[in-house]
């Protein structure tokens, strides 16, 4: 039992690291990037990418600053540490205006339900007038998902409850390019989301079984390139406390 | 003319059923002490406005003080998950959730600040939010482009927790300003709670750093630690243990009373007047 728990935790850590690396690789040098509240994996990924291949990327923080230099990454992704060492304060309204005029290249968004058409639900499970679950809401998603030039959605769970044929409520839709999960990466194509790569050690059939919409398994699906030694070293350097693990229920208990 | 009040006096200004814009964002710089006093004074039927809320909105829902919440996001973050009392209130229909996007809350506040009935906002194509909330489109008279028009949001009060205020109501915010400055312009009146009450020459030395001028402000309350258990840049970070204990109170009246009692001395400690 104890053995199993340890290996579950190890496996969750490996998945979190793979996800952080996949998200970091999405950011190109010189781009402007934004993450919202409740976004530990993207926050870690952005700080990591800026130390690796995207040193000139500009991070617009939901905490209201530009390119902060926090002593340590906070668990709250709009925590006060994300104003530390910033040369400019830039309010949320400023950031949303920048989105509206096409000034943000890349945005990372979460999603409670995601469907084949790349629509995202962050609002209600069930009918909104008789909701089974009231979710937190999409934050700025309904507007920014179509305003950012590229949107990457991540979710720290991959199961048929998350990846559904049709979302119960369309909170947001728009310029979705990829979806990163603990098992795989989806890419958005003309026919909707398709499997692009499966993380090392995983099987295409397993991923398909955990996805609630049909996938074309005949197309070329490759293995996600595993984290390089350099990527893992930088990941450990920017996030020594493991903020990225806080998205995984298997690891949350261990952390608090 | 000093506007300094005790916390109890300032909260007594709030009437049943009024609309309140709450400052801060998520787990940062919320007017937490003011919100706890709203609950102690058993206010009811409040309509709450905030782009992204957590402890403040959740507590008002837990206490039965909130009737309506207009927001883009209500929740704690990963370590604590969903705002249980808010969620329960919406699912039980004791709280009306008005589905907004952070940017539509901003647009509604801007309409009020600009003296307009509504404000156009870019985006929301393909989202179910406009139909659910009743946002309507209008045609731009120059290009014919259809845009959503967000009706004005004019809170009776903006309640903001700031780092520095003087007794007249000049205020300076350090770090992220969130929607606080806009709220101060959009609301009918402003109530400040402040970490420090300073002399006016503090503001006169750098007037460009004054976020809210005194004439907009109705009352100032000196509450050191008034955002706790959420963070206040750069003075203190989120008190995660207190948040966890509060979340354990959800659905239990006795425990909730205990939470309010636990904070009462700290919240009401400053009563000085000038």
Please provide a written account of the structure.
The complex is a heterodimer of chains A (256) and B (274). Chain A is of the alpha/beta class. Chain A has two domains: 1-107 and 226-256, no CATH class; 110-135 and 153-214, Glutaconate Coenzyme A-transferase, CATH 3.40.1080. Chain A is built from seven helices and 15 strands. In chain A, the strands form four sheets. In chain A, strands 2-1-5-10-12-13-14-15 form an eight-stranded mixed sheet, with helices on both faces. A three-stranded mixed sheet of chain A has the order 7-6-11, with no helix packed on it. Chain A has a two-stranded antiparallel ribbon with strand order 3-4. In chain A, strand 6 (113-115) and strand 7 form a beta hairpin. Chain A starts with a helix and ends with a helix. Chain B has helices at 7-12, 32-40, 55-62, 84-91, 102-113, 129-133, 180-186, 201-205, 240-247, 253-267; strands at 19-22, 46-49, 52-53, 66-71, 73-74, 96-99, 118-121, 136-139, 146-151, 157-166, 171-172, 189-198, 217-222. Chain B is built from ten helices and 13 strands. Chain B is 30% helix and 23% strand. The longest helix of chain B is centred in the C-terminal third of the chain and has 15 residues, at 253-267. Chain B is of the alpha/beta class and 274 residues long. Chain B is globular. In chain B, helix 2 runs parallel beside helix 3, helix 2 (32-40) crosses helix 10 (253-267) and helix 3 crosses helix 4. The chains are: A alpha/beta (256), B alpha/beta (274). At the A-B interface, helix 3, strand 9 and helix 4 of A face strand 5, helix 4 and helix 5 of B.
């Amino acid at each position: 039992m104890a053995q199993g728990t340890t290996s579950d935790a190890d496996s969750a850590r490996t998945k979190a690291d793979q996800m952080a690396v996949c998200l970091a690789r999405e950011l190109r040098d010189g781009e402007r990037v934004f993450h919202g509240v409740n976004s530990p994996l993207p926050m870690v990924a952005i700080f990591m990418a800026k130390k690796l291949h995207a040193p000139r990327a500009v991070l617009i923080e939901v905490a209201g600053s530009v390119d902060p230099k926090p002593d340590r990454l906070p668990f709250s992704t709009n925590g006060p540490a994300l104003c530390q060492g910033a040369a400019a304060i830039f309010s949320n309204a400023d950031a949303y205006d920048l989105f509206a005029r096409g000034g943000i290249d890349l945005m990372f968004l979460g999603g409670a339900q995601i469907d084949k058409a790349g629509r995202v639900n962050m609002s209600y499970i069930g009918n909104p007038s008789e909701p089974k679950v009231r979710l937190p809401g999409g934050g700025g998603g309904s507007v920014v998902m179509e305003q950012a030039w590229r949107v990457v959605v991540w979710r720290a769970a991959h199961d048929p409850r998350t990846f559904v044929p049709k979302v119960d409520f369309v909170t947001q839709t728009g310029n979705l390019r990829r979806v990163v999960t603990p098992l795989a990466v989806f890419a958005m194509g003309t026919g909707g989301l398709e499997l692009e790569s499966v993380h090392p050690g995983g099987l295409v059939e397993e991923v398909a079984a955990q996805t609630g919409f049909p996938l074309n398994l005949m197309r070329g699906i490759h293995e996600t390139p595993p984290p390089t030694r350099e990527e893992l070293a930088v990941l450990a350097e920017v996030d020594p406390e493991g903020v990225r693990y806080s998205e995984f229920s298997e690891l949350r208990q261990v952390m608090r | 003319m000093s506007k300094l009040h005790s916390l109890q006096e300032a909260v007594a200004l709030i009437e049943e059923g009024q609309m309140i814009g709450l400052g801060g964002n998520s787990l940062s710089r919320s007017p937490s002490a003011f919100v706890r006093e709203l609950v102690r004074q058993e206010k009811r039927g409040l309509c709450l406005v905030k782009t992204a809320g957590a402890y403040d909105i959740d507590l008002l829902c837990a206490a039965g003080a909130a009737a309506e919440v207009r927001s883009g996001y209500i929740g704690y973050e990963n370590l604590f998950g969903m705002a249980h009392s808010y969620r329960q209130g919406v699912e039980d229909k004791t709280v009306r959730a008005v589905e907004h996007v952070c940017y539509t809350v901003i647009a509604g506040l801007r309409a009020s600040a600009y003296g307009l009935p509504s404000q156009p906002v870019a985006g929301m194509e393909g989202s179910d939010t406009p139909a659910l909330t009743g946002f309507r489109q209008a045609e731009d008279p120059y290009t014919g482009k259809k845009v959503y028009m967000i009706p004005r949001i004019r809170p009776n009060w903006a309640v903001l927790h700031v780092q520095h205020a003087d007794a007249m109501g000049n205020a300076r915010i350090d770090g992220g300003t969130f929607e606080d400055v806009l709220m101060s312009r959009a609301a009918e009146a402003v109530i400040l709670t402040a970490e420090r009450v300073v002399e006016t020459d503090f503001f006169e030395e750098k007037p460009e750093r004054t976020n809210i001028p005194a004439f907009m402000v109705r009352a100032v309350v000196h509450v050191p630690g008034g955002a706790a258990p959420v963070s206040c840049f750069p003075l203190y970070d989120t008190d995660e243990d207190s948040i966890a204990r509060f979340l354990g109170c959800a659905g239990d009246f006795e425990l909730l009373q205990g939470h309010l009692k636990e904070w009462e001395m700290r919240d009401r400690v400053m009563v000085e007047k000038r």
